[in-house]
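--- STAGE predict ---
source: upstream dedup step, 1 unique chain passed
mode: sequence only
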Amino acid sequence: MQIIDVNEKDQILTTNIWLNLEWNDYNLHWNDSDYGGLNNIRISPNKLWRPDILMYNSADEGFDGAFPTNIVVRNNGSCLYVPPGIFKSTCKIDITWFPFDDQMCSMKFGSWTYDGNQVDLTMKDDAGGDLTSFISNGEWELLGMPGLREVKYYTCCPEPYVSITYTIQIRRRTLYYFFNLIVPCVLISSMALLGFTLPPDSGEKLTLGTYFNCIMFMVASSVVLTVVVLNYHHRTANMHAMPPWVKTLFLQWLPWILQMSRPGKKITRETIKMDHKMKSLKDIKERSSKSLLANVLDMDDDIRTSTSYLRMDSATEMTSSCALAQKDLQGILRELRFITGRMKKAEEDAEIVGDWKFAAMVVDRICLIVFTSFTIIATVCVLLSAPHIIVQ
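--- STAGE serialize ---
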């Protein structure tokens, strides 16, 4: 047996259990001496009668979670059927005393179509389930698995109906919750409670509360800024465009103030001024420049202008072969413009992604400096404002 999961929200217990069903079939008797000493055989459950034992409180999608294994049949007519399975059973979970809670989850088995006069269920051991091969769970401790045989009579039918209910008694292991939930809550509560032990005129009541509020504010602010840093880090060129003020502030001036640098690029006051000059020159160059092939062929980048030029010129000066060669070169120019445009777009996207990641590093560095300074200053101010720190 193994406890796989206890779902408190859906109130479902998932266990790995081997059922042990044994019955006697008088039609399966034979003399082993007539068959060379063969005293047992294995038969598929689809070719042999077996009791339709199911778990009444099953929460599985297929209802029956047992795997149909072979049935071991002996020459005296005894049949042994041990199907393993992953069973999902409903369990009413009470978390009133969480994490110091005990849970009682039942698994009720019985025949689905036979009454007690046809199939009589009994337990092999009155103590309950066999726990010799139990696999321990990291969160739950198994206390026991007692069984109970019940016989019920319904108003509709005079026949008795027999069922066996196993109660899985488990207890939550509290070590994890003690150190990760209870101890932090006790420490935080003790900070507030210790303030009431101070004299009203000492002034530390307000100081301790102020320090506690400052720490809480710092923790909340750090979470918010961490979200901002992650947002900046995972931005892409297709979704976000970096505003000019963000580029100027987080990629130039703040890294220069914080003495940060990018790989292969040192950020100084001179490089910042040079970047501004290069940006203005780049804008002028982009408005007046032509592609390399257009300059070589003395053509315009605009295909339509070149086409009109070809029509006018070919009628007077150029031969048909020259016109054909010029048309081929024009197609090559179009393909090169497309390829260079895609390469330039990929380089620009990679540069934008790198800029966002570097901006996230700058924000992260600012948060480190600000919160470290805030913690040191707040702690020093609280300690210095106290009339005495160490009492001898």
